[in-house]
Amino acid sequence: MIYLDYAATTPVYSEISDKIPDLLVKYNFNPSALYSAGVKTREALGNARRQIAFYLNVSPENIIFTSSATEAANMVFKGLNYKAANQILLSNLEHKSVIESAESASDLGAETVYIKHGREGMAFEDIRPFIDENVRICSILLVNNETGAVNQLEKLAYEIKNYSKDILIFTDIVQGFGKITVNLENIDFASISGHKLGSMKGAGFLYAKNPEILKPLIVGGGQEFGLRSGTENVVAVLTLTQALKTTAKLFEENREHLKRLKSKMVNFCDKMRFHINSPDNSVDYIFNFSTGMLPSEVLINHLSSKEIYVSAASACTKGGASRVLKNMGYSDGIAATALRISLHPDVKEEDIDKLIHEVEWAAENLVL
Amino acid sequence: MKKCLLISVGELILKGKNRSLFENILIKKIKETAEQSGSYEFKKYRARYAVIAENDDVDLQELVSKIRNIFGITVIFQGYITSKDVDSIKKCVLSVAEKNSTFKIRSKRHDKSYPIKSPDLNREIGDFVLSETPGTSVDVHNPEQVINIEIFEDSATVFTEAARGMGGLPYGTAGRVVSLFSGGIDSPVASWMMMKRGCEIIPVHFHTPPYTGEGSLLKVKDLIKHLSIFAGNSIVSYFVNFTAVQLAIKKCVPDKYVTVISRRFMGRIAEEIARSEKAKGVVTGEALGQVASQTLENMLCVDDVFGLTVLRPLVGLDKEEIVKKARQIGTYDISIRKETDCCHLFVPKRPETKANIASVCNAEKKVVEELGTDYKYDCSVEKIAD
Known about the structure:
A: alpha/beta; 13 helices; 12 strands; B: alpha/beta; six-stranded mixed beta sheet; 12 helices; 24% strand
């Protein structure tokens, strides 16, 4: 099997999955319990929080464990008070977890305002015309999950805060966390998912600079500083910290390798005259292109029959196509024939060669 | 007093000399189903079958829900089998009578030597229910509950209706048919209707990878798995890789004929499978006029390739009626599961609604040339069971 869908999920590293049975035995206790086994479980959770905080250069009390990045985004957009200012600024290229939770905040009086910007990402000039006293929060996506385009998060956050300190900044860093440098200095909230790094599913967290301004969505036992009640999923969190370590190390050591893999794809697309949808400033591990002639679904099915697993920006339904690519201004023909390859340091050059071979075959034989 | 189910069969009783043929299959199915659920004794009481529980702690409701899926059964009653003395009968009646409802007692003496006549027994038991079961009243015209008492030579039965059966004829008694089976709403209903009339079905599904994906195939298998509940055993199913044929058709014939010629090729393959499986007919889910390609002319064009009976049980139904049936038999939710595929690439923009056999045959020759005379389709066979 050649797996090239790491942006959808990264399979749990075997060094982690091997340890899970032991972790389940060792930390099979409620971290709120007062007896020794409970205290040890609590300690393990605290250590995990500290390690993550250390990695992000923030304080442990600003890390709130959740089930997913989607939950983290919901906690922010549905947990804020919109009385004084009610606008949410965001891009229509954001992940659905952000768009849908921001939209659902309309029940609380919030209003979403979409910022139009170029394919390369947001610039402060795109945002500035929208900034006034009505803006409560601005969302900046770090890495686009479909194209790999990177926003200048640090710069944008600095410029926004410099313009108005009252505006909160949220960022979805799911596709960048552990893989590229992230500076949260001017960031108020960030959402993170563990399984994209190779942890168990069901673990994620919210970074919140001032957690107290959020009204909790889930109340009960007061866990996670009162922001997210419910007994903590300690084992999943422990796999998250381990996955973070492994990912950070692998990506750091293999930057050149990933670059080579991407350039292979770029050269192939140039040769075939396929359209490259990923802008130049994209990360090396997410690459999006369109054949322009083969519906995404057909190509995915063909590759799947050869045990090569990739995904499309979206499934090929009648007249359906990638929302993100269409919002980037691409035609239906481009959006409905797109393929997303997402890589990992473990991917070999031969894997890309096989992929290229099969895509070439499909382009020659499967076009109707 | 033992718990029991009494099972009524429908038109089976109309059968003449070969009745036992149908009956034996039905009895076998009922016995097999009962044996899977627990320990039961089986008895025949005139036109009814009794499934008698060996011990009291069985869940008869569970057995009812399984038995009602067997074709050939019209009504399932639930109650007791007991000795013929009135006290025993009363004890059983007390167990089945519902509080706060209107009721009627319907007695029948199969043993005419029984000392109490039916009207007298009705009265005596009716009075007993009125005095012992709170909130009851008699309504002989429109009762909420009918309590049946039947007196046989060696025992008596007391029972009320538990469920309506599916009707029809026992599965497999009418012979074998292949069924052109897509993942849509219609073909599972068409298959079910023929199953109900006693046909053993062999679904044949045509897929066109990579234009259709694994999700669509899984959906078809889930539909067949659901139908296997009614069959009472596994269903042998064929999955034909139709891509080469479909591509040849797309390449060689005018766009408007793609649908009708595709169906003709599917028909030929289905017929080949039918002959190898000794099936006597081919079932399709077509309903007249439902889509542009399902016209009388096109049906005639497709029928032209068959040497077997073509069965179209949905031909006279509206879409709404088919959907209603699909919901009723439980295939609808599976059928509407959205599996993405690119089948629409093969659907002509303006399909021919009045195909002419001669022109179709002419157009088709090129497809045969393209495929080569020794072309053999790829196909896998699976036994699918719930």
